[in-house]
From TrEMBL:
PANTHER family listed in its UniProt record: ALPHA-1,6-MANNOSYLTRANSFERASE MNN11-RELATED
Superkingdom field: Eukaryota
The name this protein goes by in its record: Alpha-1,2-galactosyltransferase-like protein
Region entry Disordered, spans: 1-23
GO cellular component, one term: mannan polymerase complex
Biased segments, Low complexity type: 1-11
Gene3D superfamilies linked to this entry: Spore Coat Polysaccharide Biosynthesis Protein SpsA, Chain A
Name of a matching Pfam family: Glyco_transf_34
């Protein structure tokens, strides 16, 4: 689903006509204010500067707290222990217990190899109201950030996916600054194939807080990385807004993500799109989809019909189960 943009201004605006300079800066001040005594205006200016200094110093902000002695305690950045938390929401209403246990083992073995942690909430842990169960990924990421406040990144990987290459460490394969700078697509349409909203051409890896892939139709949040921090909480709260959950988007949280990325520059300015093969190739062969190749990090069994027939995804996964276990030495 593509969203219309506000009308553009005319490309042939009328010539600029400067206002009369008579009266200097006072011409911009309403007449009633011009009649205020100079001393009162000076006092108002001083109060404004005091207020501005108070806000900028963080005395009234949420970025710090105060000790019992009254000294301000700065908010500490995440220590990076663990560096990555791997999150997968499990739904035993749609998938068999054996399949979900296999998915958990896949994540746990990968995490253990690289010093990461895993987090496996159930879809029923979250009150989604009438929204589709796929929305659970958003509060699950938020939940992981609360449970592991010192982690550096959260990697959400859908239950219809497997990690296939244990040698590829996420924070080196994708997230290292030099690596991400080379991987991310700049000045690239957000919505394939030709959205007029594009990723920022000047974006640097050090400024990226969200890493996502695309398929041939839209953004693909089945494999998504979020950097821990205040921006992450703002982003997740925006994405999970009740307005979007009740809007009845055709692809639920996927189209909601597509919407907020296009309409909120604050989010677009922190997002990097990487090639689907980097962390989300598909098992199925279909036009416009990147089919998984041996050696790639992740294979996803989507778009499969897991919601209407769980065996469809599980059957698609069967050839890859023995492959990942062999790669992991299981």
């Amino acid at each position: 689903m593509h969203f219309a943009l506000p009308p553009r201004k005319s490309s042939n605006p009328p010539p600029y006509r400067p206002r009369s300079s008579r009266g200097g800066i006072l011409q911009f001040i309403p007449g009633r204010l011009r009649r205020v005594r100079p001393r009162a205006m000076v006092l108002a200016g001083v109060l404004f500067l005091i207020t501005l200094f108070y806000l900028l110093s963080g005395s009234g902000g949420s970025g710090s707290s105060r000790s019992s002695s009254g000294k301000r305690i700065p908010k500490l950045a995440p220590t990076g222990h663990p560096p990555v938390v791997l999150v997968t929401v499990l739904d035993d209403r749609k998938f068999s217990k054996g399949y979900l246990e296999m998915v958990k083992e896949n994540r746990e073995r990968y995490a253990e190899m690289h010093g990461y942690k895993t987090f496996f909430p159930s879809v029923t842990d979250y009150d989604l109201g009438s929204a589709p169960s796929s929305w659970a990924l958003v509060p699950a990421i938020r939940h992981a950030l609360t449970t592991f406040p010192n982690c550096r990144f959260v990697w959400y990987l859908d239950q219809t996916a497997l990690i296939m290459n244990p040698k590829l460490k996420l924070d080196e394969h994708i997230l290292a600054s030099g690596k991400l700078d080379a991987l991310m697509k700049k000045d690239h349409p957000v919505v394939p194939p030709d959205s007029i909203i594009k990723t920022f051409s000047h974006l640097r890896a050090q400024d990226v807080d969200l890493v996502v892939t695309q398929d041939n139709e839209t953004l693909s949040p089945g494999s998504i990385v979020v950097r821990n921090g205040d921006w992450a909480r703002f982003f997740l709260d925006t994405w999970f807004d009740p307005i979007y959950r009740t809007y009845n988007f055709q692809k639920a949280e996927t189209h909601a993500l597509e919407h907020i990325v296009q309409w909120h520059p604050t989010i677009l300015a922190r997002m990097a799109i990487v090639d689907q093969r980097v962390m989300g190739s598909y098992a199925e062969r279909a036009p416009g989809l990147e089919e998984w190749r041996e050696g790639e990090l992740v294979v996803r069994f989507g778009p499969c019909k897991g919601e209407s027939g769980p065996q469809t995804c599980e059957q698609t996964a069967q050839p890859y189960i023995s492959m990942w276990k062999q790669a992991f030495g299981v």
